[in-house]
Specification:
Elements (H helix, E strand, L loop, with lengths): L1 H25 L5 E3 L2 H10 L2 E6 L4 E6 L4 E5 L6 H7 L3 E4 L1 H45 E2 L15 H15 L1 H6 L7 E5 L6 H12 L3 E5 L10 H15 L3 E6 L17 H15 L7 E7 L7 H4 L6 E4 L5 H10 L12 H7 L5 H17 L7 H12 L12 H21 L4 E6 L10 E4 L9 H22 L9 H16 L12 H5 L7 H23 L2 H14 L1 E3 H8 L1 H4 L1
Parallel strand pairs: 1-4, 2-5, 7-10, 7-11, 8-9, 9-10
Antiparallel strand pairs: 2-3, 3-4, 6-8, 12-13, 12-14
Helix pairs in contact: 1-4, 5-7, 8-9, 11-12, 13-14, 15-16, 15-20, 16-17, 16-19, 17-19
The protein binds adenosine-5'-triphosphate (ATP) and zinc ion.
The site of zinc ion has 6 residues, from helix 15.
């Protein structure tokens, strides 16, 4: 109520202020022509004057018959008015009024400005106070001690393994110090939403049995100047007072976005907050047993300053769960729920491709609600089926969880195409993982480590890499036909084209084009040169044909691995090597 009245008063004030300003500027905004007194008398004699505005000031104003306004010296004589009147000229005495009006409006303007300023400053104080209060309420959370452990996180084995090392560091920092080991101060967890990043941070605190402090990056953006930085400082102060602890900063991208080239584009306030954070982090002595965990969905937009050594130098991807992990997560979240015997969680796991952990949790929760609403003793398969549609309803079409089995097959053959070509033509390269689960790094799920131990790339290496890039499209064409190939290869084609172009125009490796550095000759016109385009095209064509041939000769293997991938969604290095090993070939 009080707030509403204040609001009305405020609006009224602004209104009055605006009116006064307009009055102030409207008075006397006419264009006055300055004339000499002699000329003025001349006008009077000729009967050209319509009105004279009498005043006490040194000048008087008036209006001629033709409408022009004039200003001239004031004679200040007693008979002046009378003489004008006898000549049939209107005389108006308005001067006193105008002066007072002027003064009054000026005063009003000043007072209104003052009041508005007062209101604003008062409100700002309140807002700042509120935010400060909010801050202290979200910062610390001691309740998590020992309540959440790694057992509460299903799947994400690599991430858990990485964090497990930190548990010992938090518990015994002295041990590491003795060996002169510099332990990571900051760990960055990155991955799609709902994949369990927050959960992992809490579990780390739980495992190490230390308090957990959490803030969210986006909370800092609307904050008044300087508040963000001081918030960071007080957060770290609190954390230090608590001794060993885990500090969790969610949505770190809100604080540490890449500075977009031009300096003016950056946001000063978030810069200041980020700098405060970096300063605090470099202030650690290393033996304090404090670990800062940050999380983001967008590692690609993070400022590099954040990722430098001594900051968030350990980066862990938290990915979407594959079918096995989904099964574990589903089991975990039905621990406290009465599941019917007819429920097959394996089947549910299989149906929930591209579901995040959070979504799976949501699915089990919805199922329980439906069962409860229908007064059923147990949660049945039909409840889960119903919940499935509730969970995916209203989601954007492009959401991965609604992708059909057909898409899943296309992705599988495409990725296996890359992997198989790699294994067949460049077995010295490691394929560490093949997956159809998209990650933050890209839609494709094929990761390859090129042996790093050579300084130069040979022509052969480049040719191989081009073929590996083309392997995805080639596999699609072989399995689904020429007209069914998909847009999934666009990135691959980009890469292949770039490599082919360099091979011809920079490295002089294409015999029919010679040793000429076309890059030097043509500069940025390279891409519009017909000869270069033709050479690049011919090379890609030839290599694509060879890649097709290679995969056609190994269709059985392609089928076998792809089917395995469709079933399991990920294949790790060992499994892949086993599937391809010579025994299976024969
Ligand atoms: N691997 C997992 N195992 C068990 N539960 C999980 C897992 N991943 C997510 N969940 C469930 O989903 C909930 C939300 O996950 P969490 O908040 O940790 O995700 P997040 O990655 O931090 O998401 P965001 O990026 O949106 O902040 C968890 O509280 C948990 O119930
Ligand atoms: Zn591809």
């Amino acid at each position: 109520m009080l707030k509403k009245r204040k609001m009305i008063l405020f609006v009224l004030l602004v209104f009055v202020l605006m009116i006064s300003i307009s009055i102030y500027f409207q008075i006397d905004n006419k264009d006055y022509k300055s004339v000499s007194y002699k000329k003025f008398i001349d006008y009077v004699e000729k009967g050209n004057v319509e009105t004279v505005y009498l005043s006490n000031s040194s000048k008087i104003k008036g209006k001629l018959i033709d409408g022009t306004y004039f200003i001239t010296d004031n004679p200040r004589s007693e008979s002046f008015k009378e003489s004008l009147l006898t000549k049939g000229i209107n005389v108006e005495e308005i001067e006193q009024n105008t002066a007072i009006m002027n003064l009054l409006t000026l005063l009003l303007v000043l007072v209104s400005f003052g009041l508005i300023g007062y209101f604003l400053s008062k409100n700002t104080d309140k807002q700042a106070q509120r935010e400060m209060a909010y801050m202290s309420s979200i910062e610390s959370d001691f309740s998590n001690i020992r309540t959440i452990t790694f057992d509460d996180v299903a799947g994400n084995e690599e991430a858990k393994e990485s964090l497990r090392e930190l548990v010992d560091f938090i518990k015994n920092p002295e041990k590491y110090e003795k060996y002169g080991a510099r332990m990571p101060r900051g760990v960055l967890l990155y991955g799609l939403p709902g994949t369990g990043k927050t959960l992992l941070a809490k579990a780390l605190a739980g495992e190490a049995n230390v308090p957990y402090f959490a803030v969210t990056g986006s909370d800092f953006i609307q904050v008044y100047a300087g508040l963000g930085a001081s918030r960071i400082r007080s957060l770290f102060k609190k954390a230090r007072q608590a001794g060993k602890c885990v500090i969790f900063i969610d949505e770190i991208d809100a604080l540490g976005k890449k500075r977009s080239g031009n300096v003016s584009g950056g946001n000063d306030e978030s810069d200041r907050t980020l700098n405060a954070l970096l300063t605090e982090m470099s202030g650690f002595k290393g033996n304090e047993g404090i670990v800062v965990i940050a999380a983001t969905n967008r590692i690609d937009i993070l400022d590099e300053a954040l990722l430098r050594p001594g900051r968030f130098d350990r980066q862990i991807e938290v990915g979407l769960p594959d079918v096995n992990a989904r099964y574990k997560i589903l089991r975990l979240h039905s621990r406290n729920k009465p599941l019917d015997k007819n429920v097959d969680l394996k089947k549910v796991a299989y149906q929930t491709v591209y579901f995040s952990g959070a979504k799976l949790e949501n699915l089990m929760n919805e199922s329980a609600m439906i069962a409860a609403k229908n007064n059923q003793k147990t949660i049945k398969m039909e409840h889960i089926d119903k919940a499935f549609y509730t969970v995916i309803a209203g989601e954007e079409k492009k959401d991965k969880s609604t992708i059909s089995l057909k898409d899943k097959r296309v992705t599988a053959y495409h990725e296996v195409g890359h992997a198989l070509v790699t294994k067949l033509i460049a077995p010295e390269n490691r394929v560490t993982k093949v997956t159809i689960i998209p990650s933050t790094r890209g839609a494709g799920g094929f990761s390859m480590n090129i042996p790093p131990n050579s300084m130069y790339q040979s022509k052969e290496d480049i040719i191989k890499n081009i073929k590996i890039s083309l392997g995805g499209r080639a596999a699609e064409e072989i399995i689904f036909g020429k007209n069914k190939v998909t847009t999934g290869a666009s990135n691959d084609l980009q890469k292949a084209t770039k490599m082919a172009l360099l091979l011809i125009s920079r490295f002089g490796m294409e015999e029919s084009a010679g040793l000429v550095s076309y890059e030097t000759l043509l500069g940025n016109k390279l891409g519009s040169n017909d000869f270069i385009i033709k050479k690049t095209r011919d090379l890609l064509e030839k290599l694509y044909r060879e890649t097709l041939e290679l995969l056609k000769n190994n269709t059985e293997l392609l089928e076998k691995i792809s089917k395995h991938l469709i079933c399991n969604e990920t294949i790790n290095e060992e499994e892949l090597n086993l599937l391809i090993s010579p025994e299976t070939l024969s």
